[in-house]
Specification:
single chain; Heat Shock Protein 90; Beta-Lactamase; five-stranded antiparallel beta sheet; alpha+beta; five-stranded mixed beta sheet; 12 helices; flat
C-alpha cells in the first residue's frame, strides 16, 4: 500500500529525506558536543589555573612572612647581648643560657604561633638555647639547610629528621653583632608545615587526627591542590592517599617539564586529569599543581548526550511523517511533469535525428579539410626549415674550405715576413742607425705585429675549418678552467670585474683536446669580460648531468647582454659586435667548432641589461664509444 501510494521514486525520496534529516541532526549534535567539550575543558583549566596561581601567591606570602619573623627575632637585643656575653667567656654560662631559654619560651614563642620551637645556634651549628630543652646542645651543622642559613635569611625545604623521623621545616636568620658586624649565631624557628601549607592547599585546617577536612580548594569530588618539591616528592596531603608527605613520588609531565603548564595528562595515581602547574617557587623549587579527574570534569556532557538521544528518538517519527507527506505531493508533481516531458522529448528527438543526419556529412567533410590543411602546413614548415639548414650548412662548408685555403696560402708569406723582420731587428740592434732611418725600428715592429696578427687570424681560420688534428686525452675540466682564469685574472682585477668559480668537487674526467678546449674556454671568458662593466660578475660553474652521462660548464655574466635580434647570428663566422680592431668575428664560431668536435653542444640565454649565460654540454664517454 505504502509503495503503491508514492511509487519507487517516492520511496527513495522518503528514505533520503529521513537519512538527510538524521544526518543533519547527527552533525549538529556532534558539533554541539565538541563545543561543549571544549567549553568544559577551557572553563575547567581556567578555574584550575586560578587555584594554582592563588595558592602559589599564598605560599610566597607565607614564606615572606616567615622570613620577616625570624629576621625580626635576629635583631632582638637580649639575644644579641646574651651571645656577646658567651663570646667574652662569662663564667656564669649555665645561668646565661637558662635566661636565654626562658626568653625564647616566654617572649618569642607566644608571638610566633606558626613555630613549634625556637632555638639559637652558635657558630659551629650547635644549639645554645631553645624553647624546647631537649634541643639544647644538639648539633645541626650536618643538616641540609645549615650551610645556606649562614649566608642569608631563608626558609628551608621540608625534610625528615633521620633520628626520629619527624618532619623538619625551618626558618633561619643570621644574628649579626652590631658593634663589629660579625655573625655571632643563627636564630632558627622550627615550623609546623601541616598547620600552614595544608590550610593553603585545601582551604581548611588539619586536625590532630589523620583525617582531613575538605576545603574550598578541593573542588567537586576529585579536585585537589598540592605542592611538590624539587625531588618530585609531595609535601602536602593528598585527597586520595594517606601518609604521602615526602613519600609519594609525582613523576608527571608538568613536574618533568619544570615550567608552568596547563592541559590533560596522567597524574601520580595513573588517572587522566585536567591540571595546571605553577612556576616553581623561588629557590625552594616547589611546584603547585591543581587537578581534577577528566571523567568528573566531563560529567555534564553525559546529561547533554542523554537529552540529545531523547530528542533523536522523538524526531524520527515526526521526520518520517513530514517526509512522507511532502514526498507524496512531490511525487504527484513529478509524475505529471514526466508525462509532459516524455511527449516533448519524443518530438524533439525526431527533429534532432533529422538535423543530425544533415550535419553529420558536413562535419566529416570539414574534418577531412582541416586535417589536410594541417598536414600541408606541417610539411611546408618542415621543408622550409630543412632548406634553411641546408643553405646555412653549404655556406659554412664553403667558408670553411675557403678559410682553409686562404690560411695555408697566407701562413707561408707571413712566416717569411716575420722571420725577415726579426732578422733585421737583430742586425739593427748591433749597429748605429743613421738619422734618415731613425723610424726604421718602429716600422719593423709594426710590420712584425701585423704579420703576427695575420698569423693569429689564419690559425683561427684553420681551427674553424677543422684542419688541425685533435689530440684527445684525459682532461680535468675544473683544473683546465682554473688555468684559463689565471691568464685573465690580473686583467679582470685591474678592471674591477669579479670572476667567481663554482665547481662540482668530484667532476668526472672527460676525453678532450686540452689545448683546443682551453682555447674555447678562454674565448668564452674574454667575451664575457668584454661585455662586463665595473663591479659586474662572471660566474663559471661545472656540474655533472648523471642521466645524460655528460658534464655541463656554465659561463654566466652580469654584463650588457645580447639583443634578441642578433642572438641567432653570434655563431656565424666573421660576425662580431665589437669595434674595429677588437675582434675578427671568429671567436664563437671557433668555439662552436671545438665543442662540436668534442661531440658536445652549446646553449645560450641572454637578456639585455641583465647578462648572458653560455651552457656547454660535453659527454663523459671516451671518444670512440668506450664507456
Amino acid at each position: 500500500m505504502f509503495h503503491k501510494e508514492i511509487g519507487t521514486i517516492g520511496v527513495r525520496l522518503l528514505v533520503f529525506s529521513i537519512i538527510g534529516s538524521l544526518l543533519i541532526f547527527t552533525i549538529v549534535s556532534t558539533l554541539a558536543i565538541i563545543y561543549e567539550y571544549r567549553q568544559i575543558r577551557d572553563d575547567t583549566l581556567e578555574n584550575l589555573e586560578i587555584l594554582a596561581d592563588s595558592t602559589r601567591r599564598e605560599i610566597k606570602d607565607l614564606l615572606k612572612y616567615l622570613q620577616a619573623r625570624v629576621t625580626d627575632f635576629s635583631s632582638d637585643g637580649q639575644i644579641k647581648s646574651t651571645l656577646k656575653e658567651l663570646r667574652t667567656g662569662n663564667p656564669d654560662r649555665v645561668e646565661i643560657i637558662a635566661r636565654l631559654n626562658d626568653h625564647l619560651t616566654k617572649s618569642k614563642l607566644p608571638i610566633f604561633p606558626e613555630a613549634s620551637e625556637i632555638f639559637v645556634l652558635d657558630l659551629s651549628g650547635v644549639a645554645l638555647a631553645s624553647s624546647n630543652p631537649m634541643q639544647v646542645n644538639k648539633d645541626f651543622s650536618l643538616s641540609e639547610w645549615y650551610t645556606e642559613s649562614q649566608k642569608e635569611t631563608m626558609v628551608s625545604d621540608l625534610a625528615r629528621d633521620p633520628s626520629d623521623g619527624e618532619y623538619q621545616w625551618f626558618a633561619t636568620a643570621p644574628i649579626i653583632d652590631e658593634t663589629d658586624g660579625v655573625r655571632s649565631g643563627t636564630i632558627v624557628a622550627k615550623l609546623d608545615h601541616l598547620s600552614m601549607l595544608n590550610v593553603i592547599t585545601t582551604g581548611s585546617n588539619r586536625s590532630t587526627e589523620s583525617t582531613t577536612v575538605e576545603g574550598f580548594k578541593r573542588i567537586r569530588q576529585t579536585g585537589e591542590t598540592y605542592v611538590v618539591n624539587r625531588d618530585k616528592l609531595m609535601i602536602t596531603d593528598s585527597r586520595f592517599f594517606n601518609n604521602v608527605i615526602l613519600k609519594q613520588v609525582v613523576d608527571t609531565e608538568p613536574i618533568n617539564r619544570g615550567i608552568k603548564m596547563r592541559g590533560m595528562y596522567i597524574d601520580y595515581r595513573g588517572v587522566p586529569v585536567f591540571g595546571v602547574s605553577s612556576q616553581r617557587i623561588d629557590k625552594l623549587g616547589w611546584t603547585v599543581l591543581a587537578e581534577i579527574d577528566r571523567a568528573e570534569a566531563f560529567e555534564p556532557i553525559r546529561g547533554f548526550l542523554t537529552a540529545l538521544s531523547i530528542i533523536g528518538v522523538v524526531m524520527i517519527p515526526i521526520v518520517s511523517y513530514v517526509s512522507f507527506t511532502i514526498t507524496r505531493s512531490f511525487v504527484e508533481l513529478l509524475t505529471e511533469r514526466d508525462h509532459n516531458q516524455r511527449e516533448l522529448e519524443q518530438t524533439v528527438d525526431q527533429l534532432q535525428q533529422q538535423a543530425e543526419e544533415n550535419v553529420s556529412l558536413q562535419t566529416q567533410l570539414q574534418a577531412y579539410a582541416n586535417q589536410l590543411e594541417e598536414t600541408v602546413n606541417q610539411r611546408t614548415q618542415a621543408l622550409q626549415k630543412a632548406q634553411s639548414q641546408l643553405i646555412q650548412a653549404e655556406k659554412l662548408s664553403a667558408i670553411g674550405r675557403l678559410s682553409a685555403g686562404v690560411a695555408h696560402e697566407i701562413n707561408n708569406p707571413m712566416a717569411v715576413i716575420s722571420t725577415c723582420v726579426e732578422g733585421l731587428q737583430s742586425q739593427l740592434s748591433d749597429v748605429s742607425i743613421p738619422e734618415t732611418l731613425k723610424d726604421l725600428p718602429e716600422y719593423l715592429a709594426s710590420i712584425w705585429e701585423a704579420a703576427y696578427r695575420c698569423k693569429e687570424i689564419t690559425q683561427k681560420l684553420l681551427t674553424f675549418s677543422r684542419q688541425t688534428a685533435l689530440n684527445f686525452t684525459d682532461t680535468d675540466v675544473n683544473h683546465l678552467i682554473r688555468e684559463v682564469v689565471t691568464l685573465v685574472e690580473y686583467e679582470a682585477t685591474q678592471a674591477h670585474k669579479q670572476v667567481v668559480l663554482n665547481f662540482e668537487p668530484d667532476l668526472p674526467v672527460i676525453q678532450a683536446d686540452r689545448d683546443q678546449l682551453g682555447q674555447a674556454f678562454l674565448n668564452f671568458t674574454l667575451n664575457a669580460l668584454d661585455a662586463m662593466s665595473i663591479d659586474d660578475r662572471l660566474e663559471i660553474c661545472s656540474s655533472s648531468v648523471r642521466d645524460a652521462a655528460s658534464i655541463e660548464i656554465c659561463f654566466r655574466d652580469t654584463g650588457s647582454g645580447i639583443p634578441t635580434g642578433i642572438l641567432d647570428k653570434i655563431f656565424e663566422p666573421f660576425y662580431t659586435t665589437k669595434g674595429t680592431g677588437r675582434g675578427t668575428g671568429l671567436g664563437l664560431a671557433i668555439c662552436q667548432g671545438i665543442i662540436e668536435a668534442h661531440f658536445g653542444h652549446i646553449q645560450v640565454e641572454s637578456r639585455v641589461g641583465v647578462g648572458t649565460q653560455f651552457r656547454i654540454h660535453l659527454p663523459i664517454q671516451e671518444i670512440g664509444g668506450k664507456a
